[in-house]
Specification:
single chain; mainly alpha; Four Helix Bundle (Hemerythrin (Met), subunit A)
Length: about 150
């Protein structure tokens, strides 16, 4: 199932070399059960940094799933994935395993929150039309010409 997700993501995200490398890394990481995730979270809270690394690595697929649902543009795919990874780290530090919420659900919330925050600050909801873009480009060219002439 995960290999199919990675193949679809590679096509849908029009993966650049960095994204392809990340996708191949995610493909090779085995999934863990919710019980094992809770054990790793407890170990991390007790000071075992390696347990935290394992927990985050095992849930990188969550970032991929969220990115696929957001249907990102190719030019921002890797940046968006990195924000999702940062969301996983947020989840790791905030997660309380004894509350009964699976880490996969908790991490999905934080990864998605970081990705949506990134998109809200780095993309436009409404793209200007082609005539508007051409007009802006022409105005910028005119400004540059006038500056070059010293006007």
């Amino acid at each position: 199932m995960r290999n199919a997700l990675v193949r679809r993501a590679s096509t849908a995200l029009q993966a650049d070399p960095d994204t392809r490398r990340w996708l191949s890394f995610v493909r090779d990481i085995p999934r863990i059960t919710d019980h094992r995730a809770a054990e790793l979270a407890r170990a991390f809270r007790a000071g075992d940094a390696h347990a935290g690394e394992q927990l985050v690595a095992a849930h990188l697929y969550v970032v991929l799933q969220v990115a696929m649902r957001l249907r990102v543009r190719a030019d921002s795919a890797f940046d968006l994935i990195q924000e999702g990874n940062a969301g996983l780290l947020d989840a790791l530090h905030r997660f309380e395993p004894d509350r009964g919420v699976p880490f996969s659900a908790y991490s999905r919330y934080w990864a998605r929150a970081r990705m949506l925050a990134f998109l809200s600050t780095h993309s436009r909801l409404v793209q200007p039309g082609r005539p508007t873009r051409r007009r802006v480009a022409a105005l910028l060219s005119e400004v540059e010409r006038r500056e070059a002439r010293g006007e």
